[in-house]
Design goal:
Layout: E1 2-9, E2 14-21, E3 26-30, H1 36-45, E4 49-54, H2 60-63, H3 66-73, E5 77-78, H4 85-89, H5 91-98, E6 117-120, E7 123-129, E8 138-142, E9 147-151, E10 154-155, E11 158-159, H6 169-180, E12 188-191, E13 197-198, H7 199-205
Parallel strand pairs: 3-4, 4-5, 9-12
Antiparallel strand pairs: 1-2, 2-3, 6-7, 7-8, 8-9, 10-11, 12-13
Length: 217
């Protein structure tokens, strides 16, 4: 079964997720934005074997520690979608702009596309390309665990910003309604910031994407 622990990191309190297969203890870190010693300590404390780094998108608070962590631990970088190449290229500048530790440039070991899957021990997660916040944003979905790791696409009571370069509000709304909602109302999502929620709860009450707000009732 898929297990996970949420580890808020960086001054932006970005939700890095430590995910693992509880039979094999193989683990991945989703969006390792910073605080490498703390992330590795969490892996060690649970007796896990870190196998990969998965990225939803390449903003500094989600990807800032990725290059160093991959290099030091000899780990593959999986994701995001190639649409975020320019964000990866700009990580050193992003780190300076926001006062983060210097971020290393990297090239993902594997780019992801809509419909791809990623494997962790016995667990398979599906990948959905969900542009809007960034053009290359992806989401990781475990149907068996009814969990989705959505980065900055959707939050409890809100949605991702679209005022960054190549952000697109209409794309973001389409990503949420056409690619997240079909995962099911009972699916719990882990956002890039803040508390968990479920897709059903957001369809009922999120002021940006509730069914009523979008004229679907």
């Amino acid at each position: 079964m898929l297990r996970y622990e949420t580890l808020p990191v960086t001054p932006f309190q970005q939700n890095c997720s430590l995910v693992w297969c509880d039979r094999t203890n193989e683990a991945a870190l989703i969006d390792p934005g910073g605080e490498i010693p703390r992330l590795l300590a969490a892996v060690k404390a649970r007796g896990l074997t870190l196998k990969a780094l998965w990225l939803t998108h390449a903003h500094i608070d989600h990807a800032g520690a990725t290059g160093q962590l991959a290099r030091e631990q000899d780990l593959p970088i999986v994701g995001p979608h190639p649409g975020d190449q320019f964000w990866i290229d700009g990580l050193p500048q992003q780190s300076q702009m926001f006062g983060f530790p210097p971020a290393e440039h990297f090239t993902p070991t594997r780019w992801l596309a809509d419909g791809d899957t990623v494997q962790l021990g016995d667990e398979t997660l599906s990948v959905r390309h969900c542009p809007g916040h960034t053009p290359g944003h992806v989401v990781f979905h475990s149907a068996s665990a009814q969990r989705a790791f959505v980065g900055d696409v959707l939050f409890a009571g809100s949605i991702g910003r679209t005022d960054f370069p190549q952000g697109n509000y209409d794309q973001l709304i389409a990503s949420i309604t056409q690619r997240l909602w079909p995962m099911g109302d009972e699916t719990v999502f882990i956002p890039g910031h803040g508390p968990e929620s479920s897709f059903g709860a957001e369809r009922r009450s999120n002021p940006f994407v509730a069914d009523a707000a979008l004229g679907r009732r």
